[in-house]
UniProtKB/TrEMBL annotation:
This is TPPC8 first Ig-like domain-containing protein. It comes from the Eukaryota. One of its GO terms (cellular component) is TRAPPIII protein complex. Residues 5-182 form the TPPC8 first Ig-like domain. It comes from Papaver nudicaule (Iceland poppy).
Length: 236
């Protein structure tokens, strides 16, 4: 059907504002951070983030693991100044020890764990489990951010047999390689563990009741939509 453009404009006058207006959604209205974090995932303060980690016991004897939790850093802890554009971070806070580093680096990492335990920026879950010989299991860990800002999940720590403390840095497996000219560097898997935490939002959950499993052609049904406000904010 051929319709003149003038007719479309007349129909759209009541729906589209004639004066140019700035369009914002709930993502665009959030605080702007440095370009380094423009591709970060977005999460909401007060809502848990779940990370699944696979553990494998290479031994033929059972082992026990306790106090398994994530190692995280928030904007306040990593001294990331988004307003000033300063992307430098404290080496004492970001430097994670590898298996070949000395006791001094381990002490730095322990300091980061203690900071996690006393942090008011997020809540970490802890999991205890055991592994049989040659057994593999999948463990779910959660972190619940409480304030707006930048959140990085940088590693995981645990206690082996209630005595030996272990840890893993998610970036430790990334070996620096010379990039061939014309090729792009592969993104690190840890990039998926960087989040921009925005303020809490109203959240509705909906469920349609009384949906018939069978119906006749042309038959009219009146299902019931049940809405539940699971947030702390009123919804109009």
């Amino acid at each position: 059907v051929n319709v003149k453009e003038s007719l479309w404009r007349s129909l759209e006058e009541d729906m589209v504002p004639s004066i140019p207006t700035m369009r914002f959604n709930w993502l665009e209205s959030q605080p702007k951070y440095s370009k380094k974090h423009k591709d970060s995932n977005v999460c909401v303060a007060g809502e848990a983030i779940t990370v699944e980690i696979e553990f494998k016991n290479p031994l033929q004897i059972p082992i026990s693991v306790s106090g398994l939790s994530l190692i995280c850093q928030s904007e306040e802890e990593t001294t990331m100044a988004a307003v000033s554009g300063d992307e430098s971070v404290s080496g004492a806070e970001l430097h994670l020890a590898s298996a070949s580093q000395d006791e001094l680096e381990l002490q730095k990492l322990k300091g980061s764990w203690e900071k996690n335990a006393g942090s008011s920026s997020f809540i970490l879950s802890e999991v205890d489990f055991s592994l049989g010989g040659r057994e593999t299991t999948l463990v779910q860990l959660t972190i619940t951010p409480r304030v707006e800002g930048i959140l990085n999940i940088v590693g995981v720590r645990w206690k082996f047999s209630d005595s030996v403390v272990g840890y893993h840095n998610f970036d430790s497996a990334q070996v620096k390689k010379k990039i061939v000219k014309g090729r792009k560097a592969k993104p690190s898997p840890s990039n998926n563990l960087k989040f921009t935490v925005i303020k809490a939002l109203p959240k509705l959950e909906g469920c349609i009741q009384q949906i018939p499993k069978r119906t006749y052609a042309g038959e009219l049904h009146r299902p019931v939509l049940e809405l539940r406000n699971t947030s702390e904010f009123p919804v109009k």
